Amino acid sequence: MHLRLIAQVLALISAFVGLGMAAAAFVGLLSGEVAARALGAGAMVAFLVGAALTAAGGLRRRNENLLHREAFLVVALAWVLAGILGGLPLWFSGHFGGFTWSMFEAFSGFTTTGATILADIEAVPASLLLWRSTMQWLGGGGIVLLGVAILPLLGVGGMELYRAEVPGPTTTKLQPRIRETARLLWRAYLLLTGTQVLLLVIAGVGLFDAVNHAFTTISTGGFSTKNASIAAFDDPIIEGIFIFFMLLAGTSFSLHFAAASRGPKVYARDAEFRIYLAFIVGALILIASALWINAMYGAADSVRYGLFQVVSIITSTGFANADFEAWRAVHALPAFTIFALMLSGGCAGSTAGGIKVVRVWMVFKQSAQELFHQVHPRAVTRLKLGGRVVPTQAQRSLTGFILLYVLLFVLGSLSLSILGMDFVSATSSSVSALSNIGPALGTLGPFDNYAHVPDAGKWILVVMMLVGRLEIFTILVLLLPEYWRR
Question: How many C-beta neighbours within 10 Å does residue 40 have?
């Protein structure tokens, strides 16, 4: 393995994490917060780790490429390193409990899961809340993808990293050079973030809250600066801004680039985007109807709260403008629909988690195709998506992904149940972690927290967050003996 190149990449990751902490520490210093010291100490550790890795990797430029197998290791190590470094200032500050609790919060941040151990978010110093949001923003954009834009300066090829970091159904390059692809994606990411900040400020949200919530919306992370999440604003216009940007964040960034180049009609022509909207509309009808018929809210509020939660959950953001856990007491349909949305997730190539709607739709089409073959065994059919034939390799990958997802979900649910969690909380938190959503059902609803989960359960959920964030294969391939053989 190219150990020196791997060290160079990880040095960049440490630098990015350190810069993020330093920015949050600067905000803390301006406010006179003691917590700025913890962030400063964390930044120093990150820079020292980066310096050590740089020394190990060497400063000489090398015209070499990481191998495909090495990219999996780099991406996995990058996320683990970022999570550990990111959790240090939380631990140093004393506001996030012990080591396990701090690491849980940090990994939840970088994986854009949004599960928190905080019971009183508003009591935490502003600089730590900013770092908490920054972790999600960096994680959503992809720390590794950010590094890819600079890797050519070191003579390290980035395409293998890009494939490992974006292992969804499609990894289409927007430009011939991977460096340009990374830059384009980050420009779109920055533009969406800045635009949301501006609109939230115009709508009456304070600048600090606007920046934090824009960071955690575009990354589909869901950390909030408010105990009541978005319900604290209690404003349909502000909720509408969040819905719009959550929808965009849950859509493929490649599609956004294509729309910017060729016009908005690109969205209407994209099969996955149409399926994505169909899922949202279908789920909204089910939830709003159940809430209205059972007199939970009036017709308008049923649509208002139903639409926000449908978009928040399918995009794996995890914001809340209502306590959807309380809906279970009225009717089982809203909870069942939310659970299904946790599984489906957003579009491939977005910052959303979950299985992804394109995979779910392909499973339905495969099942229909098999039923057709039962009646017409000699028929020759091809699985198509958007008029294009799905390659056999992609179909195999789909089957493997779904089986592994279900297996991990079952193992996670059983493990959490053994630790004493009730069935609803164990199963829903397992899906929530694997799909990087954050809030769950049972004792882990949108206005609850994960503090009461046993420490062993927190580490189980951390592993599931990592596996889910990197779409399963990137992590699990490292467990194969064949991977480590020459």
Answer: 20
Closest CA to 68 of 477, 480, 481, 479: 477
Nearest to 225 by CA among 307, 128, 304, 321: 128
To 10 degrees, the CA torsion angle through 455, 458, 459, 463? 170
175 and 182 Cβ atoms separated by less than 8 Å: no
Sorted by sequence, the CB contacts under 8 Å of residue 197 that are 6+ apart come out as: 207, 210, 211, 214
C-beta neighbour count of 152 within 10 angstroms: 16
d(CA 226, CA 200): 15
Report the range of poorest mean pLDDT among 112-126, 236-250, 462-476.
Answer: 462-476
Residue 352: C-alpha distances to residues 248, 344, 369 (Å): 10, 10, 28
Q: b/e map of 443-456 (b: 16 or more CB within 10 Å)?
A: bbbbebbbeebeee
> Is residue 251 a contact partner of residue 273, using CB atoms and an 8 Å limit?
yes
Kindly report which listed range (69-73, 89-93, 362-366, 417-421) carries the lowest average pLDDT score: 69-73
Distance, in Å, from the CA atom of 433 to the CA atom of 430, rounded to the nearest integer, reads 5
Reported as a single tens digit per residue, the pLDDT across 57-78 is 776 555 666 677 777 888 889 9
Closest alpha carbon to 59 in 19, 12, 20, 22: 12
Return the domain boundaries, the chain: 1-167, 378-484
Tokens of 320: 């809340």
* Two tokens, residue 135: 């972790």
pTM of the model: 0.91
